[in-house]
Amino acid sequence: MIPNAKKDSIVAFANAAAMAAAMRGRRGAHMVFEALQGAYETHMERALMRLAPVNSRSWRDIPRAGAHDRSRHRR
Q1: Could you tell me the CA-to-CA distances from 32 to 19, 21, 24, 27 in Å, in that order?
Q2: Whole-angstrom distance, CA of residue 62 vs CA of residue 68
Q3: What CA–CA distance (Å, rounded) separates 21 from 14?
Q4: Averaged over 61-73, what is the pLDDT?
Q5: Quick check: helix, strand or coil at residue 61?
Q6: pLDDT tens-place string over residues 2-51
Q7: pLDDT (mean) for 59-68
Q8: Cα angle 71, 65, 48; round to 5
Q9: Which contiguous run of DSSP H or E holds residue 23?
């Protein structure tokens, strides 16, 4: 008979239980992190869409400095 067999099996079981708990904790933390990251990305996308112009404008539609409407000045 091995004198410390029962003690060694208890230590091995405790070690395996701790490893399993740590693995579940990591997986749970990873899932929570992914959920928070997805919520943040959705929030930022909506915030940027609120700041976007309603009608897209071309560079030709934007008046340049010093440009005047010449049709009013023709005689």
Answers
A1: 20, 16, 12, 9
A2: 13
A3: 10
A4: 64
A5: coil
A6: 566 677 788 888 999 999 999 999 999 999 999 999 999 999 999 988 88
A7: 68
A8: 115
A9: helix 5-51
